[in-house]
Amino acid sequence: MEKTMRFEQYQMLKQHALAACEAAGAKFPDVGQMNPIILAYIGDVVFSMYVRLRLLPTSTQVRVVHDLGSKMVSAVCQCQAMQELQETLTEEEQVIFRRGRNAKSMVPKSASVHEYRMATAFEALVGWLFLQERQERLEEILDSSFAIIVQNVKSKKK
Questions:
Q1: What is the four-CA torsion angle of 51, 56, 59, 61, rounded to 10 degrees?
Q2: How many whole angstroms separate alpha carbon 113 and alpha carbon 104?
Q3: Is 44 a catalytic residue?
Q4: How far is it, in rounded angstroms, from Cα 138 to Cα 144?
Q5: Active-site residue among 30, 44, 67, 143?
Q6: Whether the Cβ atoms of residue 79 and residue 122 lie closer than 8 Å to each other
Q7: Which of 1, 11, 27, 48 is the most exposed place for a label (fewest CB within 10 A)?
Q8: pLDDT score, position 1
Q9: For residue 110, what are the CA distances in angstroms to 5, 6, 104, 106, 107?
Q10: What is the DSSP annotation of the chain?
């Protein structure tokens, strides 16, 4: 039930965005032709919201949720998740993954080039799945990546 609610929230946000595009007279672009950096931008938003919603029950303190959420959505953590999930991707998802990984953008100092490229690939995949409305697969990727990241964060604390 809780997972269904999250996707209902995603759907509502998407419908609002589409309505805004239509109201402005803009046509929604073909997802398959979108720049992978745009897909990553959308994927970043989706994953960030997913992580924060999952963390809400863990603390009533905003700072705790924010600090943990920020760490979990970092390029380093996304890279770790993508490395484990990469073998589970379909051929179509592999194409999106490669487009995201090979997209050129500035790499922040907080991650290596490899980590940043893998994180961009992860976010592009999440963005693509979201925009393609592949909810079941998106949920699988989000749930699996969250579990991987939680496990990695826990193991580093020990």
A1: 90
A2: 11
A3: yes
A4: 10
A5: 44
A6: yes
A7: 1
A8: 45
A9: 33, 30, 17, 12, 8
A10: -HHHHHHHHHHHHHHHHHHHHHHTTPPPPPGGGS-HHHHHHHHHHHHHHHHHHHHGGG-S-HHHHHHHHHHHTSHHHHHHHHHHHGGG--HHHHHHHHHHHH---PPPTTS-HHHHHHHHHHHHHHHHHHHTT-HHHHHHHHHHHHHHHHHHHHHHH-
Q: Could you tell me how many residues make up the chain?
A: 158
